[in-house]
Design brief:
With about 260 residues, the chain is an alpha/beta fold. It has two domains: about 5-200, Alpha-Beta Complex (2-enoyl-CoA Hydratase, Chain A, domain 1); about 200-250. The chain is about 40% helix and about 15% strand. The protein is built from ten helices and eleven strands. It has helices spanning about 25-40, 70, 110-115, 140-150, 150-160, 170-175, 185-200, 200-215, 220-235, 240-250, and strands at about 5-10, 10-15, 50-55, 80, 85, 95-100, 105, 120, 125-130, 165, 180. The chain has a six-stranded mixed beta sheet with strand order 1-2-3-6-8-11, with helices on both faces. A three-stranded mixed beta sheet has the order 7-9-10. A two-stranded antiparallel ribbon has the order 4-5. The longest helix is centred in the first third of the chain and has 16 residues, at about 25-40.
Length: about 260
């Protein structure tokens, strides 16, 4: 299997597992990630997902991007109909997804990270979109998502030079990386963040994520409308009563996700 999936409590962990190919995306990886996202989205007991890469013999690596050997003969083989490149970059999702990045996340690897909602990275992690060095274009979201995460001129330099040395510490400085950790600790740190999220009400988490994604770049009236609709949805759920009752009884809430 090129992609491993493990359920840890209310968290689903997806691991790209092609260490001999630097965890590069091929057809099997794209299909495996899509299948794992399907499982996360359909399982009522999974509230948050984490995406990471397996350690190789030469050290940690998140993902080296597209498998160029396959690209030379089958450029579309690394995409799925539902998720696009890597089975992820076009994917519509309801549940939060955290990238746990140890080592390089390059080209399509950077674009997979950009597809996630939050990022945890070790101090050895680096990012880059080097497609121009191969007469390619970063077509899996990098050219419009990267300048949303870091200053546009910085993103422009990375895209036009194809540099491969944008460090996690600088990404953290600009706010793209949520949490910075030591080498080898990206997954455990991401699980800590995921568990903090799962302590909150899952329906409210999903609705809050949706509103932020839909309203951030819109006029305030859109934000007010979506926020009002969101809170009204919560009033009709079982977890709404549980949240208030737990507060009154001074105990931790027991969420049902309904």
């Amino acid at each position: 299997m090129s992609v491993d999936f493990e359920k840890q409590g209310n968290v689903g962990v997806i691991t790209i597992n092609r260490p001999d190919a630097r965890n590069a995306v091929n057809t099997e990886v794209a299909q495996g990630i899509e299948a794992a996202i399907d499982q996360i989205e359909s399982d009522d007991e999974i509230w948050v997902g984490v995406l990471t890469g397996a350690k190789t013999e030469k050290g940690y690596i998140f993902c080296a991007g597209a498998d160029l050997k396959q690209m030379s003969v089958d450029p579309g083989g690394m995409s799925t109909e539902k998720g696009g490149f890597g089975g992820l970059v076009h994917r519509n999702r309801d549940k939060p997804l955290i990238a746990a990045v140890d080592g390089p996340a390059l080209a399509g690897g950077t674009e997979l990270v950009l597809s996630c909602d939050m990022v945890v990275a070790s101090k050895t992690a680096v990012f880059g979109v080097p497609e121009v060095k191969r007469n390619l274009v970063a077509a899996a979201g990098g050219l419009f998502r990267l300048p949303r995460k870091i200053p546009r001129n910085v993103a422009m330099e990375l895209a036009l030079t194809g540099r491969l040395d944008f460090p996690a510490e600088r990404a953290y400085h600009f706010g793209w990386v949520n949490r910075l950790c030591e080498e080898g600790e990206a997954l455990s740190t991401a699980l800590e963040l995921a568990n903090e999220i799962t302590a909150a009400a899952p329906l409210a988490v999903r609705e809050s994520r949706r509103i932020m994604l839909e309203a951030t770049d819109q006029p305030d009236e859109i934000g007010w409308k979506l926020s009002g609709e969101g809170i009204m949805k919560m009033f009709t759920t079982e977890d709404f009563s549980e949240g208030l009752t737990a507060f009154i009884e001074k105990r931790d809430p027991v969420w049902k996700g309904r």
